[in-house]
């Protein structure tokens, strides 16, 4: 059975294009956008990716000005202090989140490296961590008060984006005080870090995609006919074919955002005229795994094909094979892939 499918595939046929992002990029104002000064000295661009995210608070007033203009003014004020009072070449942290929920680039080139998901700029936000941690300043003082919802919710989105870009787990989020003798990011905010990690993890695990038989990620030969007969179908129609002892499979391809475990499910209409041992071949990192599905039952809902490990990028996920001991039609309708 596997040899039949492999003969049809001739190896994995990958989709073109870059991998899709699991987490959408938030709006981040660049240094040029908020009017940053040029660095006083050349910044160090590192080839390594960060291995953690460090949470700071600015220890400034808990402003009630939640406007974008205030966020830009805050960034200019921080840069002036870091360059003129601390004698640093630029803003120390990589990014800043205002109490209104606006994100600004702190140190020059931080945004371009994050967008590329490769390398980082050496910061000046925490001794011993500046060459391996992305530093995020959060506007306000949180020794006894917690951040406003606008700031916290944006920080969750932003940390999830950083983690996704650099393939970091949510557990890689720390407070400044974890690596330096400081009260930063404040007792109240520091106590929220377990919740922050949990909320970021939920964002990272939320990625899912559905490939229908009409999707660009589906391909099959002309022997796979189209039907609208069953109301249990997913979408407008589905494909069916008669079994043969040869490798003429229907393929479902997707672009996976990161390496890891994914739950794979299939949707099909059920009918006594359909096959009771339809082979679904899953192309995981461990190789090809065949899951036989009884398509005479459980139609019109998602049916699990198991959880499997995949590497990131564009690839074939599942093939529905015609090579089966049954004689009834094999059905190819839809497949859902969810990161877990």
TrEMBL record:
GO terms for molecular function: N-acetylmuramoyl-L-alanine amidase activity; zinc ion binding. It comes from the Bacteria. GO terms for biological process: peptidoglycan catabolic process. Residues 26-180 form the Peptidoglycan recognition protein family domain. SMART domains: Ami_2 (SM00644), PGRP (SM00701). It holds the Pfam family Amidase_2. PANTHER family: PEPTIDOGLYCAN RECOGNITION PROTEIN, PEPTIDOGLYCAN-RECOGNITION PROTEIN LC-RELATED. This is N-acetylmuramoyl-L-alanine amidase. It comes from Allocatelliglobosispora scoriae.
């Amino acid at each position: 059975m596997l040899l039949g499918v492999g003969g049809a595939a001739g190896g994995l046929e990958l989709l073109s294009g870059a991998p899709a992002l699991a987490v959408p990029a938030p709006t981040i104002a660049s240094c040029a956008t908020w009017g940053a000064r040029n660095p006083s000295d050349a910044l160090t661009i590192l080839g390594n990716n960060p291995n953690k995210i460090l949470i700071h608070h600015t220890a400034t007033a808990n402003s009630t000005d939640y406007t974008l203009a205030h966020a830009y003014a805050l960034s200019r004020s921080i840069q002036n202090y870091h360059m003129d009072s601390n004698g640093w070449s630029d803003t120390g942290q990589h990014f800043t989140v205002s109490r209104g929920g606006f994100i600004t680039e702190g140190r020059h080139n931080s945004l371009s490296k994050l967008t590329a998901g490769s390398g980082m700029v050496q910061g000046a936000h925490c001794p011993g961590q500046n060459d391996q941690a992305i530093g995020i300043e959060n506007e306000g003082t949180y020794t006894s008060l917690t951040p406003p919802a606008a700031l916290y919710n944006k920080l969750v989105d932003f940390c999830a984006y950083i983690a996704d870009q650099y393939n970091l787990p949510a557990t890689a989020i720390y407070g400044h005080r974890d690596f330096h003798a400081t009260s930063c990011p404040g007792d109240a905010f520091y106590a929220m870090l377990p919740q922050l990690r949990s909320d970021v993890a939920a964002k990272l695990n939320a990625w899912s995609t559905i490939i229908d038989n009409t999707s660009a990620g589906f391909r099959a030969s002309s022997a796979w006919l189209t039907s609208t007969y069953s109301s249990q179908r997913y979408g407008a129609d589905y494909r069916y074919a008669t079994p043969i002892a040869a490798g003429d499979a229907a393929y479902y391809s997707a672009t996976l955002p990161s390496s890891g475990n994914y739950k794979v499910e299939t949707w099909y209409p059920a009918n006594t005229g359909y096959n009771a041992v339809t082979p679904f071949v899953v192309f995981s990192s461990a190789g090809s795994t065949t899951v036989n599905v009884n398509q005479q039952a459980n139609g019109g809902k998602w049916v699990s094909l198991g959880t499997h490990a995949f590497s990131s990028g564009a690839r074939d996920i599942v093939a529905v094979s015609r090579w089966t001991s049954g004689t009834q039609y094999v059905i190819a309708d839809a497949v859902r892939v969810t990161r877990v």
